[in-house]
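Budget justification, computational time. The allocation requested in the original proposal was used primarily to generate structure tokens for proteins on the priority list. As evidence of use, we reproduce two of the resulting records. The first is shown immediately below.
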Amino acid sequence: MPETVVIRRQEPDHLERAHGLDLRLLHPWGDLTAPFHGAWCVLRPGDLTDTHQHTERELFVCISGSGEIRTADTSHPVAAGDLVLLPADTDHAVANPHDTDFAYYAIWWQA
């Protein structure tokens, strides 16, 4: 039986502005069923996301540029190649105080 590989491209021209950043949700994606959700995320220079928390755990895969993960008491610098794991119920925001875009892929799942 032939192997089927499905590729989902970044599609930077199809990002939508929401929550203080440009993003594109993974779902809906045809017949894909997965135990997680995800989104391509791009913070333009000077962007700051809304501070929020949720019941899901969240993993950021930093793709390009650099930014900051801000929690209640700390700002954590991150850059392309870094992974960030946020526990459930953690107040957080993402900032880009730099002169170039900061892109990451966010994956979240129920804790």
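The second record produced under the same allocation is shown here.
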Amino acid sequence: MAEILKFIYNAILFVSLYFIVIYGELVCDTDDDCLKFFPDNPYPMECINSICLSLTD
């Protein structure tokens, strides 16, 4: 039982680290960077504090 819990804990740890690495590269410098990262977003986006934010009503 303890080995199963250790496996689940390690799986969650590695998956979360994977997401940090993948989404950590999405830091923007200009508004044009947001269009490159999210090309299918139908709403206008702005780069605010190095994060792409969608401008909705």
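A brief technical remark on that second record: The longest strand covers residues 45-48.
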